[in-house]
Every structure is written in structure tokens, then in C-alpha cells.
Design brief:
The chain has twelve helices and 13 strands. With 412 residues, it is α+β, with helices and mostly antiparallel strands. A hairpin with a 2-residue loop joins strand 1 and strand 2. Helix 1 runs antiparallel to helix 3.
Length: 412
């Protein structure tokens, strides 16, 4: 598990033989810290003299986590608030189809319930002013995010065409402090900014990837004055754009505008490296090879074992729903590409994961595990599991970015 603050990783925490870890920080700064395990993030707030124990289930880190010890109550409350938000998210697709009045009744009701919980816990628990800002921001920015999303998702539904939004609908944007530095790495805030820019793109009828990307850069540059916040959001935008539109010519045009605004050289280097990696896939270069582990536990390199055109996709035991969906779509793909081999790469750290799940494997797929996934994902640009790579029998990349989210996978 990674432990950090802001953009910095302060330590990597490893489990001992008792499946536990212990770390004492004798000199730490009060504030919000981040714990990251696989793709899951938890926040923990430290005040002076706090001594906190964490119980976590690695198989369900997102849900089964609790804090104990001095300072636990405020952190358990924050976790509870995040958990409620996650539960609400699962039911919002239907709510976005409601008319304006019904939608507002629903989101206002949810916000009111959270505010009641916030007031109750605040009366029971002693916490400082900064933690209070984080708790209130979680409630407010999730609410603002849903308002932004509703403004454009509703356009998909014909029954809402005669239900216009009021002229003052976006007045809530006046309450947003775009320059609050402490929120520059706080997901409720950064998610809101992403949704805001999507909403503005729809307002201006901008749909082309490059035009949309450039508009978002312009929005960030004009709305945010604090350089730290600006750099973080610019970096996030650049990553999102590069992964959405893997076109070298358009990427280079985007990079010109990004480099005219960005100042943080470390983040610039990351984005430029990502652009180079994407370009290498577009140029149909040979895939860089890495070491893998077979179901039997044997180590090997992949490319010498490739004998046919091959689709490589990725999966995790923490997202078996994604594996099942990907499997069904690839089975349909193989009906159209009879000479296609399939390699399913597991990205987990557990060296026994292939043995644990071999009972659900497809007979005509080959299941392997990346031994050093953190190295592989940089060169292969694996930032999301819903992307696959199509290579020829000699290891040359035929299509570097195959979209696994589409119901019908396209290799042409």
C-alpha cells in the first residue's frame, strides 16, 4: 500500500508474516494523507497526537476498511460519507432521466441527509477547522458534480426536450473556489472540475476530441490562478486527452497548447513520455517484452511464445465483472477472427492469483500474470483495464488502443 500526501509518495507499506504493517511517523505535518492500494484510494486525516490503526480487507479495500485508536472517529466519519456517496452514485442513472423539479428534489434530499449526518457527527466528534473544510467539500462538490452532469445527460432523453433548465441553474458555480490549494489532490474537487469542463463543452457544442481538449485547457487557464491547482488539473486533463484520442497528429497539436500553459517540469516530463509511448504504438513498432508468470508458476517472456495475431487484454481479481464482460465480447470477436489468439494478463500482486481463479478461465485463452506490472504499464501505457493491444505474430503492434468498453470490439 502506498502512503502519501498531495502528489508525493511518502512510504510504501508492506505486510509482514502476520498480514499486518506498522509504521511510526515521529515528525509529520497535520493534514490530509492518502492511502492507495491497487486502484483504490482512502483518505486519512492526521492531527497532532493522533495514533490510528487501520483494519482493511485487501479483497474489498474499497468497502471493508475501518480506523481505530486516537483520531479514529473523524476518519471513520469521512469514510462513512464517502461510502454513502458511492452507494448513491449507483442509483443516479435513473434520476438523470427525471424532469428538472423531480431531479432537484432528489439531489437536494440526498444532500440534506448528508448535511444532517455531518451536523450530528460534528456535535459528537472534536475536529479542527481544516478537517471541517474537507468534510463540507465532500458534500458540496459531489452535489455540484451531479448538477453539472444533469445539465448534459438530460439531453439524451426526448421526453425532457420541453423541460428547460432555469436561467439561474448554474448559479451554484459562483460558490466554487477554484484556487483552494488544499483541494488540488482531493477527488471530490478534481472530479467536479472534470465534470464542469465536460458540461461547458456541451454548452458550447464542442464534440471533436482536439477542439474539446483545447477548450478544457483554456477553461483551466482562465478560471484557476493558483499555480499548484492549475498544474494538477492541467496534468489530469492531458492524461485524459491522450488516452481518449490516440492520434499522433492531434496529440502533438494538443501538446503545443499544453506546453504553453504548464510550468511544472516533472508533470510535463510525464505527459511527454506518455505522448512518446502512444506514438510508438501508432507507428506500429515492436511491443517491448517483459517477464510473465504462467498458471503453473513458471517465468517466461511473452513475445517468443506468440505464433499468431494476438489480442492482449488485462484483468484483475478485484474486477471480475470486467473480466466476464471482456471475455464475452472477445468470444464474439473470435467468431469474426478465426485465426486470433488471446492472452489475458493479470495485473494483481498476488503470485497465486492464477491458481486461485483458473476454474473460471476459458480453454482457448492464455492466462498469465505480469511479474513487474508497474514497469510494464508505463511502457505499454496501461492506465485503464478497458484497453487491449492487438499485435501480429512477430510482436509488431497492429492496433495499440483497442477499446474494450464497446460491445463490438473492432480490430480494423
Amino acid at each position: 500500500m502506498l502512503f502519501g500526501k498531495d502528489d508525493s509518495v511518502l512510504d510504501t507499506l508492506f505486510l509482514n508474516e502476520n498480514n499486518q504493517f506498522h509504521k511510526c511517523f515521529s515528525d509529520y505535518q497535520e493534514g490530509m494523507y492518502v492511502m492507495k492500494y491497487e486502484n483504490f484510494i482512502k483518505y486519512i486525516y492526521f492531527e497532532n497526537n493522533d495514533s490510528i490503526y487501520l483494519n482493511a480487507n485487501a479483497q474489498d479495500f474499497h468497502n471493508l476498511t475501518s480506523f481505530h485508536g486516537r483520531g479514529n472517529e473523524k476518519n471513520n466519519f469521512l469514510f462513512e460519507l464517502f461510502a454513502i456517496t458511492f452507494e448513491n452514485n449507483n442509483s443516479y442513472q435513473d434520476i438523470f432521466q427525471e424532469n428538472y423539479n423531480n431531479f432537484m428534489k432528489s439531489v437536494d434530499s440526498v444532500k440534506l441527509e448528508k448535511e444532517k449526518l455531518y451536523q450530528k457527527r460534528k456535535g459528537e466528534i472534536s475536529w479542527n477547522n481544516e478537517f471541517d473544510q474537507y468534510a463540507k467539500a465532500l458534500i458540496d462538490y459531489v452535489y455540484f458534480t451531479r448538477l453539472e452532469a444533469y445539465s448534459f445527460i438530460r439531453k439524451r432523453y426526448k421526453h425532457l426536450e420541453n423541460d428547460p433548465l432555469p436561467k439561474n441553474y448554474f448559479d451554484f458555480r459562483k460558490k466554487v473556489n477554484f484556487n483552494e490549494e488544499k483541494f488540488s489532490n482531493y477527488l471530490p474537487f478534481t472530479h467536479y472540475l472534470t465534470m464542469l469542463m465536460t458540461s461547458i463543452s456541451y454548452e458550447k457544442n464542442v464534440t471533436e476530441p482536439l477542439e474539446k481538449g483545447l477548450l478544457r485547457l483554456q477553461i483551466v487557464d482562465s478560471m484557476i490562478d493558483n499555480q499548484k491547482v492549475k498544474e494538477r488539473i492541467l496534468s489530469d486533463l492531458a492524461f485524459m486527452y491522450m488516452l481518449e484520442d490516440q492520434n499522433v497528429e492531434r496529440n502533438n497539436e494538443f501538446m503545443k497548447h499544453y506546453l504553453s500553459i504548464a510550468k511544472d517540469q516533472l508533470k510535463i516530463d510525464e505527459i511527454e513520455n506518455l505522448n512518446k509511448c502512444i506514438a510508438s504504438f501508432e507507428n506500429h513498432e515492436k511491443l517491448k517484452d517483459f517477464e510473465f508468470r504462467s498458471v503453473e508458476g513458471k517465468s517466461f517472456y511473452l513475445l517468443p511464445t506468440i505464433q499468431k495475431p494476438t489480442l492482449i487484454f488485462f484483468w484483475s481479481s478485484y474486477m471480475l465483472g470486467h473480466l466476464n464482460t471482456s471475455t464475452e465480447r472477445i468470444k464474439e470477436l473470435k467468431k469474426r477472427h478465426l485465426n486470433l489468439d488471446v492472452v489475458a494478463i493479470n495485473v494483481d500482486n498476488d503470485p497465486n492469483v492464477l491458481q486461485k481463479y483458473k476454474g473460471i478461465f476459458q480453454k482457448d485463452f492464455r492466462y498469465i500474470q505480469a511479474k513487474h506490472f508497474n514497469e510494464l504499464k508505463k511502457d505499454w501505457v496501461i492506465l485503464k483495464l478497458n484497453r487491449a493491444i492487438y499485435i501480429d505474430k512477430d510482436g509488431t503492434v497492429k492496433k495499440g488502443f483497442v477499446n474494450m468498453q464497446k460491445e463490438t470490439i473492432q480490430l480494423d
